[in-house]
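re: ur question from earlier - yeah i can do the single chain one, its not a big deal. heres the input i used so u can compare w yours
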Amino acid sequence: MTSVYQHFRKEEQGFIDRVLSWKDQVEQSYAPKLTDFLDPRQVFIVQSLIGTAGEVKVSFEGGEGAERKRALIYPDYLEPDLKDFDLQLLEISYPSKFISVEHKHVLGSLMGLGIKREKFGDIIITDEHIYLVAAKEFASFFTLNLTHIGRHSVLINEVEWEKYTPSNEQWKERFTTLSSLRLDAVLAGALALSRQKAQLLIQAGKIKVNFKEEEQPSFDCAQGDIISVRGYGRLRIGEIEGKTKKDKWRLTIFSMGN
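and the output i got, formated as tokens:
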């Protein structure tokens, strides 16, 4: 088991144990296992542990271009379909001519219901509506309980999946080389900052890694990490290809500005 853990962070061991137990469950029951919504780092871990070979496979779904997805772990006889992921699209109507709603307002209102973040996926805001991808088993909870976003009344309904609209937020992709995968080095390289400025942002509590505040400049970034930088936007660590002859890390970084 140690050989599995050594490829991941110590704080991820609990999640790794869950993934391995899901895999064992599918192997023994020969029936699929559907997870809650996973963030990109968790998706990477599940994919790494289950892989594409063998009798147990995994697929992910949360909508086109989705950041958060449910995983379906299944025996190789199964050919997954969208309906197997038990997704429900919810449409939230609000007086868009009179108020402006941001992602953080919607997320705050949803979390204020006491529901776990794992029970719903992406929040997509268009000019007139907000779309929420939810676990089907919790859809009625949202329609009954989400009546306000902030001080403003909203109306929420279940709608057909055909109304799903991918987010118009665009990630910009670029390849880069970095001297280190430390958080301060990644921020400096991705945002064209000095290493000192990056360290100050971290120490000031302006950085979140995978939605948790991170105050250690020496934190090692890894594939799938989402880094939120207050005032700058978000970064996502893509594939880490390895080191160059000059001992620099070669990787892909996706960025989305404010």
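Residues 13-29 form the longest helix (17 residues). not sure if urs matches, ping me
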